Amino acid sequence: MARLHNFSAGPAALPEEVLRQAQEELLDWRGSGCSVMEMSHRGKEFMAILAEAEADLRALMGIPAQYKVLFLQGGATQQFAQIPLNLLAGRSADYIVTGSWSEKAFKEAQKIAPSLAQGSSVRLAATTKASHYTRLPVAEEIKLDPFAAYLHVCTNETIHGVEIPAERIADTGVPLVADMSSHILSRPVNVEKFGLIYAGAQKNIGPSGLTLVIIHQDLLGMAPLCAPTLLDYAVQAENGSMLNTPPTFGIYMAGLVFQWLQKEGGLAGIEAVNREKAALIYAAIDDSQGFYTNPVDPDCRSRMNIPFVLARPELDAEFLAEAKTAGLLGLKGHKSVGGMRASIYNAVPLFSVRVLADFMNDFARRKG
């Protein structure tokens, strides 16, 4: 059966080259006589897989030695609670809310803060909810606490398609915590601008079940004594992400993706391709004479997640049915916003994006 064009928001497409390598090694990883899924997580074979994955990620992202790389579980959603649990320590934290995921992070932190040391709280530093999360806040809308324990942002909102350009990530004087789940590894990033970066794997890293956390060593050791051991970043760092059985197959797959990215020219190389892919879809939208529209301000349009609506919503079902017949999968928009969404992560080939753009142009000509 031929593989189709996968635009799912997550779990999402993986590089075909990676899938084929995993298929070849599934029953016998490099002469070990067993699958990665079957081997001991403390055996020399898996320890080598873990060490290589971390080394390749550090090389890709330019992660300095003073940052710890943690391979955890629970998804980005668990981090919504784990971050304030570890970092508040009797202080306040600021949250900038630009979409559904940063809103969820803020609300979860609000639940956690009262159970922590006296003085622990979270503040809404800015929100664009009144604009239906179609833009970033302007400077005068952002009210920051210069003494905050940290500032939390979501650098790419998967549902609403709002991305913070790299040049707009400024030093505010407090540790910057970023949810990068849906665009990590899609462009170069200056890790030293951040105190903590986290991401669920199922969009640009690997299969679901693995969560990546990159944390500056100065932010370790602040969790309260009552914190569950598994949720203490310091303990996880001390144990090399091996406090309990880690998501071994997810780590293995992530390692293969890191190697694939290196062959693609690293993050600079993949960013060039991602720019070209996004330009194709935005051109199909913007040149459709209103048949398609994208509600996001052009200066913060996501390269990874492109939501769009048809001028005639009664055509939605027909669009999706024809798209499926054409081998284009995963285009239905999130239920909270409706319409369509094309998620064009690293592993979605340029060829697939060209097929989608051609389909969109043809559908608009026929139905417009």
Summarize the helices and strands and which ones pair or pack:
Layout: E1 5-6, H1 16-25, H2 44-61, E2 67-72, H3 75-87, E3 92-97, H4 100-112, E4 121-127, E5 151-154, E6 156-157, E7 162-163, E8 176-179, E9 196-200, E10 211-216, H5 233-238, H6 248-263, H7 266-286, E11 292-293, E12 305-310, H8 316-325, E13 328-329, E14 340-343, H9 350-367
Parallel strand pairs: 1-13, 3-4, 3-5, 5-8, 8-9
Antiparallel strand pairs: 2-10, 6-7, 9-10, 11-12, 12-14
- Per CATH, what is the topology of the largest domain? Aspartate Aminotransferase, domain 2
Give me the CATH architecture of the largest domain, please. 3-Layer(aba) Sandwich
Mean pLDDT: 97
| N-to-C span | 34 Å
Assign the CATH class of the largest domain: Alpha Beta
The strand line-up of the biggest sheet is: 2-10-9-8-5-3-4
The profile of the biggest β sheet is:
7 strands, mixed
- For the record, what is the CATH homologous superfamily label of the largest domain? Type I PLP-dependent aspartate aminotransferase-like (Major domain)
- Written as H for each helix and E for each strand, in order along the chain, the element string is EHHEHEHEEEEEEEHHHEEHEEH
What coarse outline follows from CA principal-axis ratios? globular
Q: Tell me the count of domains.
A: 2
- Number of alpha- plus pi-helical segments: 9
Structural write-up:
By secondary structure, the chain is of the alpha/beta class. It has 2 domains: 17-263, Type I PLP-dependent aspartate aminotransferase-like (Major domain) (Aspartate Aminotransferase, domain 2, 3-Layer(aba) Sandwich); 266-367, Alpha-Beta Complex (Aspartate Aminotransferase, domain 1), CATH 3.90.1150. Helices cover 34% and strands 16% of the residues. It is built from 9 helices and 14 strands. The strands form 4 sheets. Strands 2-10-9-8-5-3-4 form a 7-stranded mixed beta sheet. Strands 11-12-14 form a 3-stranded antiparallel beta sheet, with helices on one face. The protein is globular. It starts with a strand and ends with a helix.
